[in-house]
Amino acid sequence: QVQLEESGGGLVQSGEGLKLSCVASGNFFRIYTMAWYQQTPGKGRNLIANITNADTVTNYAGTVKGRFTISRDKNTVFLQMNNLQPDDTAVYFCNAWATLTAGFVLPKEYWGRGTQVTVSS
Hints:
- With about 120 residues, this protein is an all-beta fold.
- It contains no helices and eleven strands.
- Strands 2, 4, 5, 6, 9, 10 and 11 form a seven-stranded mixed sheet that branches.
- It starts with a strand and ends with a strand.
């Protein structure tokens, strides 16, 4: 299995920044794309950024492009969040696709438990 553990959330003021981290651990063969999702109360979980494995291609949601930066060091993914605004208040979840064995197997999706980010105005 794959365990994803997020850290770095907290309470900040508008305009400040935070850096989230997510470490993948467990008995897996390979981690593929890793991502960060944002979930606010009463709403679904929305993809805000992802990064591939081999060529570290990144993609961002329009709401965070230019303010958030996703990066990766092997099986750890980071999210640098700058100029945070109250609308960024949410639980942030780490997501990863991984295979547990070598060979022709399809990756499975795994989730962390989330870390709360609160931005006060």
